Amino acid sequence: MLRFTFIIAFLCTSVYLSQGQYTLTQALQDASTKNSTATLIDLARQEADLKYSIASHKNLPQLNLVAQSTYQSETSGIDLSFPGVTIPRLSKDQYKAQLDISQNIYDGGAISALKDNARLEGELNAINAVADMDKIKERVILLYFGILEVDKRLENLQLVKDDLNGIEKRLTAAVQNGISLKSELNNIKVEQINVATQENELSTIRKTLTSQLEVWTHHSLAPSDKLEIPSTTLIDESFNKQLPALAMFGIQKKQISLAQRLDEIARRPKIGAFAQLGYGKPGLNFLKNEFAPYYLVGVRAQWNISSFYDQSHQNKLNALYQSKLQVKEDLVYQQLNTQAIQMQNDIAKLEDTKDMDSEIILLRKQIKETGAVQLENGAITSADYLLKLNDYKESILKLELNQILARKTQYLLKHLKGY
Predict the structure, then answer these.
(1) Who wins on pLDDT, 38 or 262?
(2) 86 vs 24, 90, 247, 283, CA distance in Å?
(3) CA angle 194, 195, 198 (to 5 degrees)
(4) CB under 8 Å to 62, separation ≥6 — which residues?
(5) 173: phi then psi, degrees, rounded to nearest 5
């Protein structure tokens, strides 16, 4: 007896394990980690780090090697002659190899601004990739709940099939006993065929939705796998500041502030050291027509005074950019709040009708059961009974689909707010 019980338990466990459960949390996690868009986010950050390093290298000495060989039609010389003195003329062929070295001493903060710009570009690219990822997640939510809706419709059809099969057996006996007409039985059989057709159509739709979900999540689903209906989720009242639609404005504000810094930097003097190390013919002494090494060192200062001409206009322009950006941000907040309010109202409406829908189901069930007895006794036609059966089926389906719709709207609202 103990061995028999163990075998039964093992078989039940095997059947349970063969029907895998896949949750919305798993689907969203798979979409986030296995999709190529996740790679774009990482690449955007790597790109920002590399640009930052490149900008940092501008603080190092800048080296430039130049080599040239020329032949010219005329050269400099002094056409005078003195007894015992020969003044040579430079050769028409001349050569030079020179290393130019420059070192930034004070740039007014230009290199620092370049590094900050590299960071901002990286953040902007990463946020764009996150926005693309959010679109994929929204699609996954819609597909997931679409499959749940199809499953509920299939379950509802199974209930109808069970009812039709039961009434078919009772009508068959009634026809044999001469209580009911065969045409009434045929109407039931026609409805059974219609239900089977609907079942095939829904199975095809489920297969299509499942294939699309597999594409976005990179997770294979077996036909026996069941999607779990998500539990009610808590939704924060505020929007997540890291939501791409909102975080984008934060970065754009930083970019405007950086543009103001660059304007100020352009009005500051620049100081740098430089050196030239070379070997050529001639060297620095152009009167010596021979190869010679040479060097030159110095300090250079630059100040673009004309940059002050447009200072006031540029400040007004940056202020205008800030104002425009603030208006756009307010509009986005307004649109998001409008969508959130609509979703919250939809959820409340669906929750409010749940009790009434449950009561209607009980009444429809009683009407349907009474109709079955009446049909069996020939008091009503099969068409009348099918109307009662369809009303019962639709009342159950309405309640179950409304519950799924409420959950879907909750998760879409949570996604809208960036959580």
Answers:
(1) 262
(2) 96, 13, 78, 20
(3) 90
(4) 101, 102, 103
(5) -65, -40
| DSSP type of residue 66 | E
Would you tell me how many other CB atoms lie within 10 Å of the CB of residue 329?
17
pLDDT digits over 94-145, tens only? 999 999 999 999 998 899 999 999 999 988 988 998 999 999 999 999 999 9
User: Is the Cβ–Cβ distance between 273 and 285 less than 8 Å?
Assistant: no
DSSP H or E stretch at residue 291: none
Closest listed residue to residue 323, CA positions, set 252, 406, 381: 252
Residue with tokens 């984008």: 248
Give the whole-angstrom CA distance, residue 193 versus residue 195: 5
Q: Is the pLDDT of residue 310 over 50?
A: yes
Looking at the DSSP bridge assignments, the partners of residue 93 are 71
E strand or H helix that includes residue 325: helix 311-352
Percentage above 70 pLDDT, the chain: 93
The model's pLDDT over 357-415, given as tens digits with 9 standing for 90+, comes to: 999 999 999 998 999 888 888 888 888 888 998 999 999 999 999 999 999 999 999 99
Q: Strand, coil or helix: what is 70?
A: strand
Strands (E), 238-361: 270-281, 292-302
